[in-house]
Amino acid sequence: xxxTERPPRVFFYVQHLLGIGHIARASRVANxxxxxxxxxTLVTGGMPVPGFPGDGIRxxxxxxxxxxxxxxxxxxxxxxxxxxxxxKKDRTDMLIGAYHGAKPDIVIIEAFPxxxxxxxxxxxxxxxxxxxxxxxxxxxxxxxxxxxxxxxxGRDEETxxxxxxxxxxxxxxxxxxxxxxxxxxxxxxxxxxxVVYTGLVAPLAPPPxxxxxxxxxxxxxxAVGAALIQAALEAAPKVKGIEKWCLxxxxxxxQADFEAIxxxxxxxxxxxxxxxxxxxxxAGARLSISQAGYNTVCDVLQAKCRSLLIPFSASGETEQSAxxxxxxxxxxxxxxxxxxxxxxxxxxxxxRALALPAPDLVSLDLDGASGTARALxxxxxxx
Length: 383
What we know:
The protein is α/β, with parallel strands linked by helices and 383 residues long. Helices cover 35% and strands 16% of the residues.
């Protein structure tokens, strides 16, 4: 058992490239760790997102990178310029310097090596640096419950090799009664002794809403959500009995799209970039319409709100479709495929979703932030 008078130090790396889901989930976990007595340094490398990681978290911001579209090919800096070798070296040096400055007892790397191969240029040197450290910290990867299917041969084998070489634990932020790692990662059995399920990282039960809307339409980060918002806007006149709509476009929706949507919104439709009280609004709504990203689904489940899910499926993405299908089978959502979106199909899907029973009891484990803190405490104490 490790004993120390000071709080265990955690160095938590997260890289979001397109949406805000990764940094939102990591922020929830980081705040839970800090509340449990860990000393947390959160390292981010994506475009800044208002409200994250939240107050009180020590935050290291690497020079930001992103992808320009949903294909996740090619990295650009904050100005849209391709990230060259010199830029990547500067980031790597800054990351390794931050690691040595933090002197962590535990390192958590979000997604890698199961994802985020685009930033292996800095993560592989970081892992080598960790292996040379004395004492060596515990190293863990932090995963959402459902992984993107990989089509390129050898990728899964490479992932297993890296886990076996560098990682002490694989933290899966999911409920094994809903989905298990082996359902979306074929070689999970080879690393099963390292897998720890934490529960879904949902927010705390939200307070009552300060204002009420019948339907909340949200596009997550907004970078790829314009079609969803536009379809809901066009469907609104076709849906009877709805007094107030709330459209949340997301901080990353292109300004031209946001302005076009705002200009077309009727008197009963309010359009926002972002709402800090999103979870509370869901708790007071009759229906949520959204993509099927991890964090949004957790918000909807915690709020016990009916749900219409339009999973993001461009460029071969499979994760959201897998989540949406499982929720529909449990009667917790109705699903409309992205390729089938029209004003009429959206209106019809809204009517079906409104007819679902209210999900008053959700049996899934939604305490994943605290569950992660408990798992880290156990792993650290047992070292």
